[in-house]
Specification:
One of its GO terms (biological process) is glutamyl-tRNA aminoacylation. By secondary structure, the chain is an alpha/beta fold. The protein has 11 helices and 10 strands. It has a single domain, classed as Rossmann fold (3-Layer(aba) Sandwich), CATH 3.40.50.620. It has helices at 3-12, 28-43, 62-75, 90-102, 113-125, 149-158, 168-175, 213-223, 239-249, 279-284, 289-295, and strands at residues 15-18, 47-52, 84-85, 106-109, 163-166, 180-183, 190-193, 203-205, 228-232, 255-259. The structure holds glutamic acid. Residues 19-21, 53, 217, 231, 235 line the site of glutamic acid.
Length: 298
């Protein structure tokens, strides 16, 4: 396909993407995701992009990125080149953050993880129940929304690290209507009501890394013209935040397909530390790409 053909096709053809973070070796769960993306793209005459989600510059390494590409190539995943690397697009995420800043929807957040934890424990020792997000993490306290401009400036000048968080209440009232997304996956299907408020004041720019998962994934899906997001059910609820950001930034929403997860040997979610389900380990044992397909049930 020439670049011209691709551009013409790209206008109408569905666009899929597989978007791993190279902070460990790929495992069977990634294989399911990548194979589903490839199969769906093929059946729908679509394109398949590979996006390396490496905003966490301390955990993601070039060696692991090479390993990701090696595993996907071995599996026979036909992704387009060049591959997009998030670490090469920080200015684009910064621009999106700046737009949200100009809309008065984000604020600098200074509390460390330890400070939040201590606050939550003290509250719960007194018998209170601190609200938690869909992943079970305590919501960030909201008082920094109210800091005066002078106090904000003073803190920015004197405290080393800060994150930028979305003022969820303001963002929702600006949008002013319920948000939904189209879902075709293995859980609930159809038009799903998004509940971004369940996540509280999500972080959009981390204190220890540029950007954040939510901001970079939303900006990139739009920048790459992604029409179909196929990923694990562990990200089902996070879609609410992505829908909200799309609405605030005026971006088109893709269709979402959240697929079943592959449980680890102990029945829990697979993680990158579970070496025995790493594709590289299975390959070394003599498994073939079709064995992997069978192992993930497709
Ligand atoms: N980078 C994310 C992960 O490896 C996936 C992001 C997505 O598919 O939206 O879990």
């Amino acid at each position: 396909m020439t670049e011209r053909d691709r551009q013409t096709a790209g206008k109408t053809a569905p666009v899929f993407r597989f978007a791993p973070s190279p902070n460990g070796r790929l495992h069977l769960g990634h294989a399911l995701s990548a194979l589903l993306n490839a199969d769906m793209a093929r059946k729908q005459g679509g394109r398949l992009l590979l996006r390396i989600e490496d905003i966490d510059l301390t955990r993601c390494t070039p060696e692991l990125e090479r390993a990701v590409i090696e595993d996907l190539t071995w599996l026979g995943i036909p992704f387009e080149r060049p591959v997009r690397r998030q670490s090469e697009h920080f200015p684009l995420y910064r621009e999106a953050l700046d737009r949200l800043k100009a809309m008065g929807l984000v604020y600098p957040a200074f509390l460390t993880r330890g400070e939040v934890k201590a606050r939550v424990s003290a509250f719960e020792r007194e018998g209170g129940l601190w609200p938690r997000d869909p992943d079970g993490a305590p919501l960030y306290p909201t008082e920094e929304r109210e800091l005066s401009a002078a106090e904000r400036e003073r803190k920015l000048a004197t405290i080393d690290r800060h994150a930028w968080r979305l003022d969820m209440e303001k963002a929702l009232s600006l949008v002013g209507k319920p948000l939904t997304w189209q879902e075709t996956g293995d859980g609930h299907k159809g038009e799903i009501e998004a509940d971004p408020a369940a996540w509280g004041d999500v972080v959009l720019w981390r204190s220890d890394a540029p950007s954040s998962y939510h901001l970079a994934v939303t900006v990139d899906d739009a920048a790459q013209g992604v029409t179909h997001v196929v990923r694990g059910l562990d990200l089902f609820h996070a879609t609410a935040v992505h829908r909200l950001l799309q609405e605030l930034l005026g971006l088109t929403a893709p269709v979402y397909h959240h697929h079943r997860l592959i449980p680890g040997p102990d029945g829990r979610k697979l993680s990158k530390s579970l070496g025995d389900t790493a594709l590289s380990a299975l390959r070394a044992e003599g498994k073939t790409p079709s064995d992997i397909r069978a192992m993930v049930g497709i």
